[in-house]
Write a structure and sequence with these properties.
Belongs to the GrpE family. The strands form three sheets. The protein has a three-stranded antiparallel β-sheet with strand order 3-6-7. The N and C termini lie far apart (103 Å). It has two domains: 2-9 and 28-95; 101-204, Head domain of nucleotide exchange factor GrpE (Nucleotide Exchange Factor Grpe, Chain A, domain 2), CATH 2.30.22.10. Strand 1 and strand 2 (21-25) form a beta hairpin. It has helices at 2-10, 33-97, 101-118, 125-147; strands at 14-18, 21-25, 150-152, 165-171, 181-186, 189-191, 194-197, 199-204. The chain contains four helices and eight strands. Residues 1-29 have low confidence and may be disordered. By secondary structure, the chain is of the alpha+beta class. Helix 3 (101-118) packs antiparallel against helix 4.
Length: 205
């Protein structure tokens, strides 16, 4: 369009002398063939520029979508990694907290045998002496387990709790309220806040 205006500015009125009279003949407003070619080229150039601009905008939109997808993928990966690290940390804490669980599980049967031996009644002085030694070992073993966080589960006289008690028998007992533990057949133990073995109990109906 700039070239067109420039050409139009260059068009000057023609002066023709006839019989000493100057007639001014204005040039027609119709474009010459050269000017029409210039206009066509200018229009083609503008059309190409519009097409290139539209293509550039489309490419920019495509790149923005790809960038957004990449950012979302990175955020998801970051969240997954954070969850993984948290699970690993919790597993490590649990492993440290309950590190003695396998050992405690293996020791409990021996502890049961000590307690059964201590229930023996005898008048034999030699047997009593042996039982005193057994009681001392039993006490030391219980103290060692307490140091690791092992405690016996309270049962007799308590309301039955399926989380820590295992009912193996029910009985009608007027002296106890319904659903109360009246007898323990085998002690239960917890390690910190985890049940290692539930108590086997008799429950009143």
């Amino acid at each position: 369009m700039v070239k067109l205006l420039f050409l139009l500015r260059e068009v000057k009125p023609l002066t023709i002398e006839k019989d000493n009279t100057v007639e001014i003949v204005e040039e027609t407003n119709e474009l010459t063939e050269e000017q029409e070619q210039v206009v066509s080229e200018e229009e083609a150039l503008n059309s190409n520029e519009d097409a290139e601009l539209a293509s550039a905008k489309e490419r920019i939109a495509e790149l923005e979508n790809k960038l957004e997808d990449s950012e979302n993928r990175i955020l998801r990966l970051q969240a997954d990694f954070d969850n993984f690290r948290r699970r690993v940390r919790l597993d490590q804490e649990a492993a440290q907290k309950y590190r003695a669980q396998n050992l405690v599980t293996d020791i409990l049967p021996a502890l049961d045998n000590f307690e059964r031996a201590l229930q023996v009644n005898t008048d034999d002085e030699k047997v009593k002496s042996i039982l005193q030694g057994v009681e001392m070992v039993h006490r030391q073993l219980v103290e060692a387990l307490k140091t690791e966080g092992v405690e016996a589960i309270e049962a007799v006289g308590k309301q039955f709790d399926p989380n820590v008690h295992q009912a193996v028998m029910t009985v009608e007992d007027e002296e106890h309220e319904s659903n109360t533990v009246v007898e323990v057949f085998q002690k239960g133990y917890i390690l910190k806040d985890r049940v290692i073995r539930p108590a086997m109990v008799k429950v009143s109906q």
